[in-house]
Amino acid sequence: MEVRFLFPAHLALFPHTSYYKSMVLKQVYIYAVLFFMGLSFASIVKATSPQAYQDFQFQFDIYRQIFGDYRVALGEFKKYSSLASEQMALDKAKQLIGQRNQVARAYFLFLNEKLTENPSMPPAELDLYHKIITNEIAFLDQETSLAPSLSSLADVEKVSQEFIKHYPLMQSAFRQVIIATQLGYLRYFAKQFDTVASEAQALVNANRSAMTDTKRATLDRWILALSNKRSLYQQKVDGVRTGAFKLNGDVADQDRKFIVILQDLTAARQYLIEGSSFFTEVENALRYDD
Amino acid sequence: MEDSQQTPVPTMEPIREPPIITASNKKPLPLISLLGGVIALLLLAILMLFLQNQRAKNVPEEIVATPTAAPTPTPIRKPSALSSTQAFATFSSKKASFSAEINNYSFQEGLFTPPTLDLDLGIND
Question: Is this structure's pTM higher than 0.90?
């Protein structure tokens, strides 16, 4: 039936002709191509951050395995100092360096997906963090490209030193992107909070004359409480934003600051949750006369 | 000498009559026994009361049909005129959506833990 719709109707009158058959085959190919294109489009549209995280975990597992093999090979070399054991240790070291970069790269790609999926990331910030990620990945790729040309364990050590020097900066980038992602989600909720709050305020203002004095006073108190929660939220978020730019230097120090920032993010979210319960009070006060 | 060898004659004490108990010289009952009697009576009375009470408990109560009272009316809050407006419905639905989203959101701290990588390769150890 579909075929008749897709090419001239008079051809359907001659279903046994070779031309008819070739046209049918052509249509089948077109449908097949469209079907697979549709499938690939669907996979692009789907959120890819879980997949990216799975890939990161997979890369990390491989890294752990290679690290174990490398330690064994290095131990053998230190024990026997033979050429064969040195070559084995060198091969494992090359693999290790490549895989270590691969783990960091996979985690950056996961964060990149998270940034892209974020519901409320301002374009300027998105560009900034995409740029940070791109630069970090470029550094890691460059390090990885050096690995196959390493000819001795001394070279391995030299290349690894570059990685060690860069490591705090890389950890800072990880943390800054994570904080930006969380702030993006909070910004999304804060926008919703503002919309609901302004609607509540408009409803109270529009019906103020019809309310009793007690009800008016009650509603005014709730609106004030909501405004206070919003201010407290904003203070926390501003503090987090300032703290995020101070994440540098020693990795252990970064960790300490990062924990404080995560606590502040949780507190900011808590303010919005409390605000949502205040909205319920406003809603009930408006819903009933008494 | 003769006197000293004679068997001594037992001296006989005069027979005394047992004292006759009369009302005047009868000893009064000790106070403790009186108290004991009173306490025993009291205990008996308490036991009787207890048993009576137990018996009364075991007797099935008579069900007396009593007229049923009208159920207490549940207080019903009167909805305001505002609650039926479109503006209120919009506010209510946005509020519900916001509450659900913020309560369901979690920071996924497990995912957002940066990987710690081994820096020291141990070549120069």
Answer: no
